[in-house]
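Propose amino acids for all 351 sites.
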């Protein structure tokens, strides 16, 4: 393998493991040396050295979106990845040639995010998206390796969710009646079913079976359109409490002939983000019980069931988890309360 100067440019000349002669030309010696080093490493590892030096980072982003993202991911994930690509990755790496992006470049990108004081989970998410974009080109044999894999993620504490206690739930419902009474039926439903935000905005009256006391979760809503739920297990039947059944029957009489259980003024599906910003957030702030997410309402429902020794299989089915082990892993933090309750029950039996 050799590097030689050709006029104003530099040429890399080598034979890959398949006996194919590769000649590529670069404007600077540094670029040529980088490709030469990659070719030597790849040949030593028995990899095909077919790096395409013409493809740019912008080209790779377009390929990633069209050939991978739109085919394999759900709308919410697509929207989030496109935001990261357009607002974070493209402005930083711009139209650089993909083969020129080194481990040091990725490290510098990570440092720039740290200087902006972004959360560790956010920075790691950006690195995951960047790595996924480059990995597609490694699979296409456009690149030798994915340099993002050499960059360490930032250690972060995973948010396990907050479960409200009974007093906090009572406070939440009381404040909701006062601040956003129109949100009360939805809030009460989520606390009694553990439905996700997308599932609750997509809930239609045809999915509420008052005769069998069931809510059939069949869709999730995102930006005004219906989609398949998060997973196959998310399509499920949730048993209604008597108080929830009573509330929804009364609410149906008031809401008229709208298709969706909780709809906007036009009778169409609510936007999940608007529900969070205009309804949930004002109530949460007014409560005075600290910060919690909309998803923590679901977490509260699951915790109440586990704390009161409801069979884990039933909890799994109500929550739409793919396995009971996932349910157990999520609600391990309520184990002490469950143990105490179980021991109290045994005391009453054998006392």
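Proposal:
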């Amino acid at each position: 393998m050799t590097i030689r100067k050709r006029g104003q440019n530099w040429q890399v000349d080598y034979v890959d493991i398949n006996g194919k002669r590769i000649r590529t030309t670069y404007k600077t010696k540094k670029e040529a040396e980088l490709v030469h080093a990659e070719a030597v490493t790849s040949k030593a590892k028995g990899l095909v050295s077919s790096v395409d030096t013409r493809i740019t980072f912008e080209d790779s982003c377009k390929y990633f979106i069209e050939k991978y993202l739109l085919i394999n991911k759900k709308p919410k994930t697509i929207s989030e990845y496109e935001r990261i690509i357009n607002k974070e990755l493209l402005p930083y790496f711009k139209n650089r040639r993909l083969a020129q992006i080194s481990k040091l470049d990725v490290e510098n990108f990570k440092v720039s995010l740290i200087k902006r004081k972004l959360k560790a989970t956010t920075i790691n998410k950006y690195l995951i998206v960047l790595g996924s974009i480059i990995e597609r080109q490694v699979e296409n044999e456009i690149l030798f390796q994915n340099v993002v894999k050499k960059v360490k993620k930032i250690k972060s504490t995973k948010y396990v969710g907050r479960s409200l206690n009974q007093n906090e739930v009572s406070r939440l419902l009381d404040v909701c009646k006062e601040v956003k009474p129109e949100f009360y039926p939805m809030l009460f439903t989520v606390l009694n079913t553990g439905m996700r935000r997308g599932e609750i905005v997509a809930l239609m009256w045809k999915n509420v079976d008052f005769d069998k006391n069931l809510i059939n979760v069949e869709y999730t809503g995102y930006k005004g359109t219906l989609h398949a739920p998060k997973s196959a297990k998310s399509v499920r039947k949730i048993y209604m409490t008597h108080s929830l059944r009573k509330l929804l029957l009364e609410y149906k009489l008031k809401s008229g002939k709208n298709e969706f259980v909780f709809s906007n003024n036009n009778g169409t599906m609510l936007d999940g983000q608007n529900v969070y910003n205009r309804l949930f957030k004002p109530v949460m702030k007014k409560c005075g019980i600290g910060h919690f997410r909309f998803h923590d309402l679901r977490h509260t429902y699951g915790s109440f069931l586990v704390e009161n020794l409801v069979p884990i299989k039933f909890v799994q089915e109500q929550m739409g988890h793919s396995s009971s082990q996932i349910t157990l892993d999520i609600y391990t933090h309520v184990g002490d309360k469950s143990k105490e309750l179980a021991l109290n029950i045994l005391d009453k039996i054998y006392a």
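Strands lie at 2-6, 9-15, 21-26, 208-209, 214-217, 220-222, 225-227, 236-239. The longest strand covers residues 9-15.
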